[in-house]
# Entry
Amino acid sequence: MHDMSAHAHVAHPAPPTSFIRKYIFSLDHKVIGKQYYGLALVAVLVGMFLSWLMRIHLGWTNLAIPGLHLLSSNGAPGNVMTPEFYLQLMTMHATIMVFFVLTTAPFAGFGNFFLPIQVGAEDMPFPRFNMMSFWVTFVAFVVLVSSFFVGDGPTLGGWTQYAPLSAVGSVAGPGEGTGVVLWATSIALFCVGQLLGALNFITTTLDMRTRGMSLWRLPLSAWAWFITSCMGLAAFAVLMPACILLILDHVAGTSFFVPSNLVISDQVQPHSGGSTLLWQHLFWFFGHPEVYVAIVPGMGIISHVLITSMRKPLLSHRVVVYSMGALAVLSYMVYGHHMFVSGMNPISSLAFSFPTLIITIPSTILVLIWLGSLYGARLRITSASLFALGFVSMFISGGVSGFFLAQPSVDIMLHATYFVVGHFHMVMGVAAMFGIFAGTYFWFPKMFGRMMNETLGKIHFWCSFVGTYCIFMPFHYLGMAGNVRRYQAFVNDYTQPLIPLHRFITVAALFTGAAQLIFVYNLIHSRFWGKPAPDNPWQATSLEWSTPSTPPPHNNFGDKLPEVYHDPYQYGVKSSVGDYVMQASPEQVETAQGEA
Amino acid sequence: MATTVHEPPKIEKGRDASRLASNSGNGGGRNLVPSVGDLRAVKDYAPPPASTGIWVVLASITMTFLAFTSALIVRQGSALDWRHLVLPRILYLNTLVLLASSVALEVARRKVGAFMSGRRSQVASPARWLYITLFLGLFFVFGQYLAWLQLRSQGLYLATNPNSSFFYVLTAMHALHVLGGLGGLMRVIRRLNQSILRKSTLDATSRYWHFMDVLWVYLLLLLWMKL
# Structure
């Protein structure tokens, strides 16, 4: 009896042969990881395209964009964007990017592919849930994008969908009827997908580790995925009920979020007594942890990449893990800082301001550890390590503005300006994207068995790095000059002089976006015609580089699971293979650094 | 009722013994460096994933219902339109039925455990108490449906009043989770009949089921109380 329960591991019989079981409804975590990555790639191209349209409109407001009418039946008469259509594009850009790119790629994509391998397992413990997790997410994406083609288009309420305008139906504007229902359905489905994923990630980390793989021997990327899945577990479980209540306000006439006697478009709304702030509380209880769900996997990935490129461990392995854990815990205690101007008791804003300032401490510790570890390192300059450095740079530049926004007195002035837009685009958007890029250049050889082109990778890095600074640094200046976000055109006296800067940003955005096509070309070209990859191209130590073939076989490690003898990052040592000892190598390490 | 001949379960198919021996996860967290060729020094026990996984599931369900609870409390205080509804009597009967189903499941777990460990091989049908649990669970869901019908006949619909809104939302969400549990129970019965049931699966399912009890009693109190 006990034999059975103690070895309740995944049944991993012979690999599937049919096309559908192998590539579509696959139970293999590696295929699911690639599917997530592919979904994110499609989503990021869609999201970037939408941002181009918005930027062109912001620079040249009355410019006709050829073909724009194809995207909307009534949003682009004469191919000129209406204000409502601008807001619809903005909402969809944000929703697609936050949910289907920044959550999907670094967490669900890379995590699915590499977490089981890094802990030394054959697969995740619940492969069917894992498959459902992807397909539910896929359906969520289809539902969201379908709102472009249904009724009067997608919702224009922003990715935060503030009530009551999001809850009263089409009287509040185009897309506020069917569009919101589709949005909320999509997000509720997305939550279910991510909860199923979190279930697998947590159990994989806790129960599937191979012999010798103690928790402290997990690589930092595995730690980051584990911490992220714990965060996601609580966050998505709260957003889902909120979406259900929002849908009910729409389709069943309930009054959860709509107050009494609300007049919209000269009509008294038939709801009574709901609380508009309730939506904000439920949303931001999810929303703030969500930004850490987006960024923490990047922290783990770039730590992993940096260590391998520096050929030495970080100053402290444990402090990095503790800091990421502290971010996870604190991320639940700060959400009110999004609501400083929503009508909040001053004591509450103080109570939310304080942990918001505290949360900068683990972030600063992480940055200092990355920078301090770089001191004296002979860094190998690769596309992956450049993007890892870019991550640190973006995280600092975007994070510094967080100090300002954390204080209610300053935030009241800066709230809903481009200052905030610049802040979160850098610290969470671009930084997380750089984490994805670092992970891609680093792990692509293991995922697809071919090397990516390094020259193109470096060109891609420099274009992206310079380009994103050109886009998002001026946002801070715009915000301080009083430029309010979500405006579709700048016609006031005080915003008129800012239009040249907006045009500069638009040109930079078009250039940076175009540079991403280099990446897409590199990805596709290398996938089919790249140089065949060796098993361990970066001389790295963790288990994903110990697989018997590249890409790994169906059950990851062939006949026998690896056994782990070392801490994850044994670099700068003398061994038979060079300056590193792999985790699965029984070789004794000569210098005992890090082995304690 | 099951007509299958019951045999003690077999070790999972498709895995040979040598593989099992090298495949025992190390959840012990001991940072020992095993000497070459001898990995027995490493503490070598990890709970089966179902045992950990069920706590993960319960944690996320808890968060979901906490979100509903906070919404209920905020909504109750946000306006003066809250009319406290009298709970249909049948809910108390349903509560007893659900509690009884948990008792039945606990009996089933012991009987199946005794059967699986080989201590009792002559049990006529170890699945009998599982079927009783299943029946009681179905009865509970049907009873909830009757409660909804009662409220409807009083003119209390989903959108009538914030209290009735929360009543329908909370009971429906809970009933959905109970239906999920019924699916889990049916899976347990099927695997038991095929003799491939793992103890950890049974334990996880019963934990989920008992949690549904606790959750229901909590929801009943929440809906009954005048906060």
In short: Chain B touches chain A through 68 residues (CB under 8 Å). Residues 1-44 of chain B have pLDDT under 50 and may be disordered.
